[in-house]
């Protein structure tokens, strides 16, 4: 009977209490005759897990987000598949040329139609490329992208505030409506607070003075959070602080309470979702039990058929265990020492990236390094350093001439820029599946990938050819519902076998 109650979470479970208070499970489904005084344990639907206001705001069936993975790893096809499955999908537009972002957005809009609201695109903080964030926001506004996931931000920027403010209006009943939604992906409370709070007055005044927003929009922006959806990014692939999920979520919940009290906002106006480590039904159920409004998956979708990663890279991911990841310097913030988490098994990328950064931190230039180290650099680059520098300089001269000029006079800076190009190309080679560069693949992923592989081992989802965003999402949410039901039964005093807190993948029609 206990097993039936867990495996049929959409049916009520009927329980009676003896005089001693010990519960008895009577039936699943209809209340048995003669037990009119029995108590009903309500149904658990996957659609009910999380904050129903989130799904309503974004036109989704589930409180589940297929997160953006930069450089087009989260493809338009992935976004479309996620949205059609009833989830929210984000396009991995970060790091792509504006023309490619525009065509990707057009593909999504064409596939989903003008009424679809459960999709968006990625805006990544780009301190190395002045004007890039503004250009991307301008494109999103022009193309009607109404949901933006802002990632890797260390502070609030005027362009994020502008995007939010331009979408605000006053409804007939006096409430403030959002047309543009920011999802702020953060791993620190101090960064989260800037997005949770209304936009700073000084920033709003500057935007009004520049003609970027109206005074009326500035007034509305001063009354609502910049971002109503905050994604707590725990130990994840790519940019990460390797934060444990539970302490991070608790920290952001406390930050929300502080901000709500300071600005007289209802706490419910700020939803907190959880990302990083979301890979099994247990992790999904745990996130919702902690109070997460929604969950966001990333690494595990990278192994799906809709991923922009080449088949060779997806096969490497499918072999990963929870410990087969490593930290290495980030291409976009190499000089600052910012790191990303990548796949270690089957590649040498993490080790090579760290060695490049050690050369840079030592203050060396290519010319001052020992001959052995110069040979190593040329071998890893696959070409002489000077050729790599000329190709790098051509690009840097176009996007940031001042930085190119600095590098012309500073050998250490030249070494850093060439290293950044190598790190950047690692992701490109993985996307293209370049066979002779497998050892240099940069594949962003966290420990969740290994946990997912362990969960699906021996099931229909084990082969990468069978992994779709839809099947992954539906299995995670169905499994989470069953585990939540098992938790309900245990919480009222019933003995629930340990194996019922597990769920094996099944193929959904």
UniProtKB/TrEMBL annotation:
A Pfam entry, by short name: FabD_helical_ins
Keyword terms: Dioxygenase, Oxidoreductase
Gene3D superfamilies in alphabetical order: Aldolase class I
Record has Oxidoreductase as a keyword: yes
[Acyl-carrier-protein] S-malonyltransferase-like inserted helical domain span: 365-441
Gene Ontology molecular-function annotations: dioxygenase activity
Protein name: 2-nitropropane dioxygenase
Lineage: Bacteria, Pseudomonadati, Pseudomonadota, Alphaproteobacteria, Hyphomonadales
């Amino acid at each position: 009977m206990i097993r039936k109650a867990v495996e049929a979470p959409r049916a009520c479970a009927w329980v009676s209490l003896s005089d001693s208070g010990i519960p008895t499970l009577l039936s699943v489904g209809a209340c048995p005759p003669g037990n009119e005084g029995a108590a009903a344990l309500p149904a658990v639907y996957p659609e009910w897990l999380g904050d129903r206001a989130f799904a309503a705001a974004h036109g989704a069936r589930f409180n589940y987000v297929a997160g953006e993975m930069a450089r087009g790893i989260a493809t338009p096809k992935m976004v479309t598949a996620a949205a059609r499955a009833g989830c929210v999908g984000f396009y991995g537009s970060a790091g792509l040329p504006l023309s490619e972002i525009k065509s990707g957005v057009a593909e999504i809009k064409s596939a989903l139609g003008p009424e679809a609201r459960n999709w968006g695109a990625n805006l990544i903080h780009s301190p190395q490329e002045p004007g890039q964030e503004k250009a991307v926001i301008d494109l999103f506004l022009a193309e009607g992208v109404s949901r933006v996931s802002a990632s890797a931000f260390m502070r609030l920027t005027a362009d994020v505030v502008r995007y939010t403010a331009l979408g605000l209006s006053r409804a007939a009943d006096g409430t403030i409506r959002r047309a543009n939604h920011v999802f702020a992906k953060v791993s620190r409370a101090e960064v989260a607070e800037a997005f949770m709070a209304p936009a700073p007055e000084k920033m709003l005044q500057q935007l009004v003075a520049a003609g970027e927003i109206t005074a009326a929009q500035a007034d509305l922006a001063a009354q609502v959070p910049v971002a109503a959806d905050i994604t707590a990014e725990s130990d994840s692939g790519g940019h990460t602080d390797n934060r444990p999920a539970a302490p991070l979520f608790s920290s952001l919940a406390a930050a929300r309470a502080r901000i709500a009290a300071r600005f007289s906002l209802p706490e419910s106006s700020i939803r907190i979702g959880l990302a990083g480590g979301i890979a099994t039904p247990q992790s999904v159920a745990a996130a919702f039990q902690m109070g997460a409004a929604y969950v966001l998956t990333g690494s595990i979708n990278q192994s799906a058929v809709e991923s922009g990663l080449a088949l060779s890279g997806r096969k490497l991911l499918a072999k990963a265990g929870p410990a087969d990841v490593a930290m290495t310097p980030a291409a976009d913030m190499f000089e600052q020492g910012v790191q990303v988490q990548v796949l270690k098994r089957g590649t040498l990328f993490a080790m090579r990236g760290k060695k490049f950064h050690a050369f840079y931190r030592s203050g060396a230039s290519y010319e001052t390094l020992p001959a052995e180290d110069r040979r190593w650099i040329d071998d890893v680059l696959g070409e002489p350093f000077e050729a790599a520098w000329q190709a790098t300089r051509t690009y840097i001269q176009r996007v940031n001439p001042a930085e190119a000029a600095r590098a012309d006079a500073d050998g250490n800076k030249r070494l850093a820029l060439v290293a950044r190009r190598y790190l950047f190309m690692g992701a490109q080679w993985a996307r293209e599946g370049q066979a002779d560069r497998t050892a240099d693949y940069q594949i962003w992923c966290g420990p969740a990938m290994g946990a997912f592989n362990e969960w699906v081992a021996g099931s229909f989802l084990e082969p990468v050819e069978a992994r779709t965003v839809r099947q992954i999402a539906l299995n995670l949410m169905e499994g989470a519902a069953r585990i939540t039901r098992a938790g309900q039964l245990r919480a009222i005093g019933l003995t629930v076998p340990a194996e019922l807190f597990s769920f094996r993948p099944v193929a959904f029609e």
